Amino acid sequence: MTAVALVAGQPPSGGDPPVRGPGRAGRIAHRRRRMVAGLLVGALLVGALVALPGRLGGGPLTAPEPGPEGSPIPAGQTTYVVHRGDTLWSIADRMRPGGDPRPLVDQLASEAGRPQIQVGQRISLPGQR
Q1: CA torsion, points 77, 81, 83, 85, in degrees to nearest 10?
Q2: Using the 8-state DSSP alphabet, how is residue 114 labeled?
Q3: Is the entire prediction scored with pTM above 0.85?
Q4: Rounded CA gap, 89 and 106, in Å?
Q5: Which of 14, 24, 81, 87 is deepest in the core (most CB within 10 A)?
């Protein structure tokens, strides 16, 4: 067994110098990197929140664009041609203004064969035949 003498400020004989933590300059650089990374992530999130709603488009929960025919649908009409911006809800609302459109929306979806409609599609109007 050999004895190793430790002298203050000098590495032990035959070994590497002791490892010290980062100095003040290292801590400041680390803090700057973290701040820049945080700002970059924040900017990306804000950009995504601004850009996405315009790209998502209209869905069932968005307000419909007014169609070319905003007036009530005549009582004698048996079919309706879907226009741009029409939804089952807007068609039902025009068929029975002021009434509860939910039962009529269900009937229109049944007549259309699916809950989504497309521009130019012809829908048989229930109760109008």
Answers
A1: 70
A2: S
A3: no
A4: 9
A5: 87
